[in-house]
């Protein structure tokens, strides 16, 4: 029997559905152990054979060992098990709207997904606009404006407070930003909210430093700087005297060093160091050291 939740995820740089599943825990304060499924290691279904009928990521294993292999099912199950976590808005109109938005994302926007696969390691410019892609972007404008009317007041997120709907549209924001897609002011502001959101930034930081590069996601387009907040100056170093004796994440002794904003800090392993170097201020436990 499991002692807690286990979430099987794909490569963080590319797996948009894995990002959604992870945000359902991270953004709502729920503990989970993640297990990585490497796409180059064979079919996902084979790698998850012990958890049949799961064949995709994310796949959740509940504390009692139940397999939940669909992201929308994961969202609803977590909301049922943790009613105070805030997965859905309390207000009935906002909750109904959030569910409608989430369901449409779960089943729609096929052109946007196909033409602009999520790739958090690079930003592009010069994406060709087709009628089908324009239709998907126009549809986003319609439903985002509708959500704003339902809320009835200025809000950072679709239905007021951050909800399942926002977790599901986070990869959409990454696509719009990463491909420089033309959208209106409401959607532009919404995308900016995701790019600055610390949980999203932590996911992207990990995606930058862990996992194989998958050439099938490469695009024949010019590249440009990632449009999110610019991280602090940071680099891995081999020598120096760290300000901290233990890793800010694990509490273990320091073995790896980084120079961040002109100061030297220590970490317990290369991954802790590298994810912090990628975006230092995305990590509250490290930011406290600053």
UniProtKB/TrEMBL annotation:
Keyword Cell cycle part of the UniProt annotation: no
InterPro entries from the UniProt entry: Glutathione-S-Trfase_C_sf, Glutathione_S-Trfase_N, Thioredoxin-like_sf
Positions of the GST N-terminal domain: 3-86
GO molecular function: glutathione transferase activity; maleylacetoacetate isomerase activity
Keywords: Transferase
Pfam families: GST_N_2
GO biological process: glutathione metabolic process; L-phenylalanine catabolic process
Domain of life, source organism: Bacteria
Record-given protein name: Glutathione S-transferase
């Amino acid at each position: 029997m499991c002692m807690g939740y286990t979430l099987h995820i794909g490569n963080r740089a590319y797996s948009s559905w894995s990002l959604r599943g992870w945000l359902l825990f991270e953004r709502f304060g729920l503990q989970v152990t993640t297990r990585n499924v490497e796409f180059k290691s064979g079919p996902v279904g084979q790698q998850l054979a012990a958890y049949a009928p799961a064949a995709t990521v994310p796949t959740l294993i509940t504390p009692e060992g139940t397999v939940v292999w669909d992201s929308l099912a994961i969202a609803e199950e977590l909301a049922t098990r943790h009613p105070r976590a805030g997965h859905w808005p309390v207000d009935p109109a906002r909750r109904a709207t959030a569910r409608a938005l989430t369901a449409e994302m779960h089943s729609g926007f096929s052109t946007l997904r196909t033409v602009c696969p999520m790739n958090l390691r690079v930003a592009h410019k010069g994406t060709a606009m087709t009628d089908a892609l324009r239709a998907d972007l126009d549809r986003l404008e319609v439903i985002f404006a509708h959500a704003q009317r339902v809320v009835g007041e200025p809000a950072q997120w679709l239905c007021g407070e951050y909800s399942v709907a926002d977790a599901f549209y986070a990869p959409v924001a990454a696509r719009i930003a990463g491909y420089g897609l033309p959208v209106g002011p409401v959607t532009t502001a919404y995308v900016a909210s995701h790019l600055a959101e610390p949980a999203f930034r932590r996911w992207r930081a990990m995606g930058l430093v862990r996992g194989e590069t998958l050439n099938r996601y490469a695009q024949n387009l010019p590249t440009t700087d990632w449009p999110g907040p610019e991280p602090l100056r940071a680099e891995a170093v081999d020598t120096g005297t760290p300000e901290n004796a233990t890793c800010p994440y694990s509490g273990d002794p320091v073995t790896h060093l980084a120079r961040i904003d002109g100061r030297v800090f220590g970490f317990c392993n290369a991954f802790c160091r590298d994810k912090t170097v990628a975006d230092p201020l995305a990590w509250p436990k490290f930011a406290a050291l600053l």
